Structure formats: C-alpha cells, structure tokens
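Milestone M4 deliverable, item 7.
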Amino acid sequence: MIENPADRTYLGIDVGGTKVALRLEGAGRAPAQDSFPWHPDASAAEDMAALARHVQEFLAGERGPLAAAGVAVPVTLDERQHVTAWPNRPSWRGLDLGARLRALLPGARVEIGDDGDLAALAEAAHAGSRDLVYLGVGTGVGGGLVLDGRPCPGPARGSSELGHMVVDRSGPLCDCGRRGCLQAFASGPATLRRAARLRGRAVEFAELRAAVEAGEPWARETVAATGEALALAVVSLGEALHTGTAVIGGGFAAAIPAVVEETARSVAALVRPGVRPPRVAAAGLGGLSSLHGALLLARQG
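Output delivered:
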C-alpha cells in the first residue's frame, strides 16, 4: 500500500529563551498549537525533562505515527549537532541536542535548524519573496537571509548570525563578549535596559508597551533607538546584497508595532541618495515565524 503524504503528521518546535512553542499539522486534522514557559536559570537536564514532558502531553492521544519534526533553535551547533554556544543558557554547552531530540521522538525524522534561518524561510514563503532579510527581535536578535529562494549561506556553511553584526564598536557589551552587536542594542532586554536608564528605574515590558501606545516621550525615544540599530543592519545588508525586503518579527517586535515603524523611518533616513530603500514590513506570521519555519523544515527535510 502506497502511503499518502496527506496522511502524515508533522511537528514543529520553536525553542526560545523564555518559552517553547509547539505546532502539529497534517493527517487531515486542524492544526494544534501550544506553548510553555521555562525557567531561565534551569539546567540543560531540567530543560530537556520539561521539553519531554510537554511534548508527550501535547502528542497524547494522537493517532498514527509522527512522520517528522522540525526544531528551531537559537544555539550554535557543531557538525555532530552538539551545542557549542548559547549565551542565554550556558548549561547547554556540550549538549548532544540531536541525540536527545531523536530519543524524545522515536521513529520520527528529526531536523534541526537555526531559528533565524527558519523564520526567514517561512516569511519568504509567506510573502512569495525570493530575496529577503529577516530580523527577529525577542530575548535576543536572530535573523536570516533568503537569496534567490535559498537560505544564505546555506545549511552546510552555518547560520546567518545577524544579531551579532557590529553596529557600533564602542557600544554596549553583548552576551557574546563583544561590544556593539546589534543584539546588544535592539533585543527586548536591551531595549528595556535603555528604558530603565531614561526613567532612572527598572521598566517592565508591559509598562513600556503601554507608554509607547500612549506616546510618552521616554518610551518613544527608547523604541526609536532600537529601530535605528535595526535600520543600520537593514541598510548595510541592502548595500551588500541588494535585498529588496526586510521583515521585522519576533515576540518583542510583534507586541510593540512601533519597533517596525521606527525601523522603517530610520531606513528611509539612512539610505544613500539615488538608492531605493528596502521595504520594511512586520512579519506576516507575527511571532510565530520560527515555528512555521520548523514545520517547513519537517515537511521538506
């Protein structure tokens, strides 16, 4: 009997710094989606146990085998799929992530990809674009490039670490140990630290969002600086690669639309005379770009 691809079920997992998102598609069923938070100070063993528990609960009652799973991760992996770096969770260093995920999902093909690269692929597919820059603003700044319909530089050569482009050599210290990375200016935590400096006290995310919506000057200044840093990356990449579209996504940017607005404004101000500025748009998939990219990886891998 020949298997019908429409009968297959696919799982997408998006591993983030503060939460994990899950989505199940296929087999003639309505998509199912869930997420769970995890503690930032948990060990790698505790994280793997939490992931196993939630995935098993999510898949409980599913009929038929899981064909494949795609997993989006913000870590640096070596050729054996061992974690070599994740500044937000240093306990993951040395973790055999490939083996742990395959053990969690026996019988399924498991594909792992960089969250920024997968988000770029998903956004490019969603927009019908063959040339696109994606910047995901969340706990860090991830990103990816799609050129002529393909991820750049490509799986065999690693991921596009756009969050670690240096936009100001004398800028703040990044988690990677270098100064002035885009992530050190434009991530959610970096933006909140800037707000705290302007306010003279700690600022929570909900307060910043409300203040931006109310048009309070300190909040608008905070977000304008984040947009300018993102615009520097967009314009620089546009000069080198002639990408016509820049998509800004990630949970932080999705929740504060002014991030995209300020990025677009700064791009228009920074572009050279006679050069068409890249189009700047909010992610069509919102904060779920990496999750949908993980599902694409599962289906195509």
